[in-house]
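Study the following:
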Amino acid sequence: MGAGPDLARLRAELVAYLRRRARKDEDAEDLAQEAFVRFHRAGHDLAAADARPLLFVIARNLQLDRWKAHGREALRRSPDDVHDLDAGPRALVSDAPGADRRLIDRQDLAAAAAAIRALPPKTRDAFLLHRFESLTYRQIAVRLGVSVSMVEKHIAEALRRLKSSQED
């Protein structure tokens, strides 16, 4: 994927995706920018076939992390129960994953990306449209020029292969 209009379109799609999933006052623009930064820091290339799904997964994970952080912050500011005050130091322990968990997650993401890349083109397209663009089977069928039944088969095959790749 080159610079210019393709990058601008990808960024706009990512921001729209984040806004659809957003809670109240969340800034989808900031999350999208951070996703691009992390994508590049990890050494990924926007020209790669798996660039789009990886970028969307990174953005989704950033969004989830932000939600968790806001939830923890709200709990710290106003304990709901007097017993929460008795938790002592345990109340301050972070729920953030450790370095080992982050490494395992990164390896899992790389394995999932490899499994997605290995899917046949129509199967991969159907899976990505459903999973990352939240299109219905009917919308995917129209876009790919196949029947809804064929879309169901493509998605089932993609899920089967992804599950199989996790078990290996």
